[in-house]
């Protein structure tokens, strides 16, 4: 085995009838460790310790990731701070499959996603799971600001790419990601904004206005009943769509990814995590006078975000692109968590720190103060699916 950590598109660890664990990757590699990440770098390392490899991946800045490899004690696999590159565990009796791709668990009775900052060690007695503590942070004086963290998070993900797609609604979260993609690349990366809407139920007027303000190309994807039904029927990730919201979001991300991929984009960026980190949901505003309750609610929502990320990431991959969620970079997560809960919803504005930082970075004020535009509702997809397609028969 070679002392390195290489990138793999597919990671598969399996065990049949309590036998030995097998470890396969695509492409095949001789490296001790592999990572499915935004970065394509092969990282040299002399260590086999899970914690040391994790530290190296974080310091290198590979973006969203999941990693697997050989420790002295055997095979191990672990997720990033949010689970933004999904890891699935499928089991049926004594048979196990662990993979970063949902289709690798096909035929397995039970499949579940693994939370963020979680490690699995695989041994003769099965799987042991444990949470990973956050890496030590620098002193506050050395910690990057929220603005710098956001810029670096985007830069890590688009570096070396010629074309990048952004799922786009015209709201704060997607507008800031589009703006930063242009800014940090100095317009060297071709940016494509993609908005999806249901014919007869939604229209992209806000996305058009925002794209014009950002001077960026916008692709509009119109979906009808037939298109949505085909996505539900044929998408590999549809097996984990369990609710109407899962279906509407999953369909939307598949269609956005297809459109971006057809235009030459290999990476599709989305704004997942901003609401949970910065206080974007109406329920936070309702309890804003109780910072302790706000903190508790946001912590709970972030810890359970991995389930939605598994849905969204697999839907994007079904469409052809690789998924990436810059707001869930550990730098951004740490910066957000350093902001007191009572400062995240201020004066009726949710996500107040993100709005202020967006204007500081140069995002037009109109976009920085734009109201929340929940994708499944603003696109009209939820209404189309509810009225014209029986979600009772959706996979999962």
Provide a descriptive summary of the structure in words.
By secondary structure, the protein is an alpha/beta fold. It has two domains: 2-131, no CATH class; 146-393, Rossmann fold. The chain contains 15 helices and 17 strands. The strands form three sheets. Strands 5-1-4-6-7-11-12 form a seven-stranded mixed beta sheet, with helices on one face. Strands 3-2-9-8-10 form a five-stranded antiparallel beta sheet. Strands 15-14-13-16-17 form a five-stranded parallel beta sheet, sandwiched between helices. Strand 2 (10-15) and strand 3 form a beta hairpin. The protein is globular and about 55 Å long.
Q: Report the biggest beta sheet as strand number plus sense, adding barrel if it closes.
A: 7 strands, mixed
Order of strands, widest sheet: 5-1-4-6-7-11-12
CATH superfamily heading of the largest domain: HUPs
Radius of gyration: 21 Å
What is the CATH top level name of the largest domain?
A: Alpha Beta
Instruction: State the low-pLDDT regions, or none.
Output: 392-396
- Second rung of CATH, namely the architecture of the largest domain: 3-Layer(aba) Sandwich
The count of strands amounts to 17
Give the N-terminus to C-terminus distance in angstroms. 40 Å
């Amino acid at each position: 085995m070679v002392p390195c950590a290489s990138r793999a598109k597919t990671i598969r660890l399996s065990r049949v009838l309590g036998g030995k664990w097998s470890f396969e990757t695509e492409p095949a590699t001789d490296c001790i460790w592999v990572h499915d990440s935004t970065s394509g770098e092969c990282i040299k390392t002399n260590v086999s310790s899970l914690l040391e490899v994790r530290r190296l991946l974080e310091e290198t800045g590979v973006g969203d990731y999941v990693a697997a490899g050989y420790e002295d004690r055997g095979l191990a696999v672990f997720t990033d701070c949010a689970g933004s590159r999904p890891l699935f565990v499928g089991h049926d009796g004594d048979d196990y499959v662990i993979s970063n791709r949902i289709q690798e668990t096909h035929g397995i009775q039970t499949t579940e996603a693994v939370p963020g900052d979680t490690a699995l060690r695989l041994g003769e007695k099965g799987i042991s799971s444990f949470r990973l503590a956050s890496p030590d942070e620098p002193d506050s004086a050395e910690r990057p600001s929220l603005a710098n963290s956001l810029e670096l998070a985007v830069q890590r993900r688009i570096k070396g790419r010629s074309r990048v797609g952004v799922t786009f609604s015209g709201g704060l979260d997607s507008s800031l990601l589009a703006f930063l993609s242009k800014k940090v690349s100095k317009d060297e990366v071709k940016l494509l904004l993609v908005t999806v809407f249901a014919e007869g139920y939604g229209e992209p007027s806000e996305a058009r206005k925002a794209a014009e303000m950002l001077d960026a190309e916008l692709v509009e994807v119109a979906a009808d009943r037939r298109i949505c039904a085909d996505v539900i029927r044929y998408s590999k990730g549809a097996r984990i769509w369990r609710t109407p919201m899962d279906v509407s979001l999953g369909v939307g991300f598949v269609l956005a990814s297809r459109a971006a991929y057809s235009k030459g984009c290999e990476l599709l960026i989305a704004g997942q995590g901003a609401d949970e980190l910065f206080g974007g949901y109406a329920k936070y505003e309702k309890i804003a006078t109780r910072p302790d309750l706000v903190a508790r609610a946001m912590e709970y929502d972030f810890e359970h975000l991995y389930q939605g990320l598994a849905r969204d990431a697999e839907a994007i991959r079904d469409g052809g692109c690789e998924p990436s969620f810059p707001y869930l970079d550990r730098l951004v997560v740490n910066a957000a968590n350093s902001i007191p809960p009572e400062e995240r919803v201020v004066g009726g504005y949710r996500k107040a720190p993100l709005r202020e930082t967006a204007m500081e970075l140069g995002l037009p004020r109109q976009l920085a103060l734009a109201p929340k535009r929940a994708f499944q509702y603003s696109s009209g997809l939820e209404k189309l699916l509810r009225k014209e397609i029986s979600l009772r028969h959706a996979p999962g």
